[in-house]
Amino acid sequence: MGLRTPPWTSRGTPALASEDGDNPDMAKHMTAVAETSDSATSTIIGTDTAEPAAPMKLLTARQAGEQLGVSPETLERWRGAGTGPAFIRLSGRYIRYRPDDLEAFIEARRRQNTARA
Question: Which residue among 5, 13, 96, 106 is buried most deeply as judged by most CB within 10 Å?
Fold first, then answer.
């Protein structure tokens, strides 16, 4: 069985002709592509050399309260009522806040007038 061109290709790149994949023309073609194409290689190398992400900054209740202008006790009451900013419970007594969540909490409460929205 000889080389055949798949009907969906227009360039005439040879397809594998035998069941066992023994096609010297295809091997030459693949070698040429591998030697001339740096895009795939650079993408793979690029992911290995990327700098690791900075660790997430988490704030204590005291730090979060300072940013919001409230006490840690107020944040505790808000957590219990479900009305405060989103928080992370690292363990039973360790509560932390993400700066992005504090900003979102502030933006959600931004008003133009005193009428209820």
Answer: 96
